[in-house]
Specification:
Layout lengths: L20 E8 L2 E9 L5 E7 L7 H14 L4 E7 L3 H10 L5 E8 L21 H8 L5 H4 L2 E6 L2 E11 L2 E9 L8 H16 L4 E7 L3 H9 L2 E11 L2
Parallel strand pairs: 3-4, 8-9
Antiparallel strand pairs: 1-2, 2-3, 4-10, 5-9, 5-10, 6-7, 7-8
Keywords: Acyltransferase, Transferase
Pfam families: Acetyltransf_1
GO molecular function: acyltransferase activity, transferring groups other than amino-acyl groups
Length: about 240
């Protein structure tokens, strides 16, 4: 059962990723009114979330303060990430004529209702010889700390798919799931996803498993929904700088 409500985009933060995480407190009349957390992995683009119980009276002021602070941090782009049910933010950006730069669906695996047999492909940790192929598949070099949690699938010494498993306590996130173009639409992605699910559930049968996908990627969204994932909510990314 997917719980309802408004959600905040707060990533699992590992100690080695602390250098990429930015925090801020917004005070008004000596009272903390909001908490801001942002993530930047390329030194230029910040994805920020505002957590506040009653942000309505000062939302515009808070956005302006976030812009100023991000500039001080040296950011060239800033995206404010908001649940699409967060009416205060929606109303503000609608008045400004600002539409989301993009949106993501957050999905949670429904283990209780999933009855399919899971594939069991061999997913491996990438070796030095795989790094060039991995960078081409991801269209960029992964961060060293991400590489530690990355898995790949190979056939005939060819790297065909990759994904990353992040977990904190009993929550597991599937990130960076990419299948090489020549294998898309042929069932390999489904088998790799199932194999990753098997690995997680063998590690922890009660694990909460989630992933995110851009709303425009309908093929991936369909795959995830047919493999037991259900949409919990949608995050909109508004560019404010």
């Amino acid at each position: 059962m997917i719980k309802q409500g408004t959600f905040y985009k707060l990533e699992q933060t590992f100690p080695e990723e602390s250098a990429y995480t930015y925090y801020g407190l917004y005070r008004k009349e000596q009272t903390i009114q909001a908490y801001i957390v942002g993530y930047c992995f390329d030194g230029e683009t910040l994805e920020a979330t505002i957590v506040a119980p009653n942000v309505g009276p000062f939302f515009e002021e808070l956005v302006q303060e976030l812009e100023k602070q991000a500039a001080l941090w040296g950011m060239k782009e800033v995206f404010l990430v908001m649940d699409d049910k967060q009416s205060v933010g929606l109303n503000y950006f609608n008045r400004q004529g600002i539409v989301p730069a993009f949106s993501e669906q957050y999905l949670v695996f429904q283990r209780e209702t999933y009855s399919q047999a899971l594939a069991k492909l061999t997913l491996l940790r990438p070796q030095v010889a795989d790094l060039d192929s991995l960078a081409r598949l991801l269209e960029g070099t992964p961060l060293p700390e991400d590489l530690q949690r990355t898995l790949i699938y190979k056939e005939n010494n060819q790297l065909l798919a990759t994904l990353r498993l992040d977990h904190f306590e009993n929550e597991w996130g599937i990130y960076g799931f990419v299948v090489t173009k020549t294998q898309r639409g042929r069932g390999l992605g489904r088998q790799v996803l199932q194999s990753a699910l098997r690995m997680i559930l063998e590690n922890s049968a009660s694990a909460t498993i989630f992933l995110e996908v851009e709303t425009e990627n309908q093929a991936a969204l369909h795959l995830y929904q047919t493999e037991g994932f259900q949409v919990r909510n949608q995050y909109n990314y508004y560019q404010i700088l």
